[in-house]
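Researcher: I'd like a structural prediction for the single chain below. Treat it as a standalone chain; there are no partners to consider.
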Amino acid sequence: MTHRPMSLKPRNPLVAAALHRQAGAHRKSPGALRQQAHRTLRRELRHEHPPSP
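Model: Treating it as a single chain, here is the predicted structure.
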């Protein structure tokens, strides 16, 4: 087992909470929209013309 020396200063308890509150993107990226359109098109085509056995 590795022994870690105790830090001299206590950790800031507010930092951990602030890191969990960081906001992300509020809309999909252009790549995600393009992929979603591609999946939707494939799904519709598969539904109209099922693969032949």
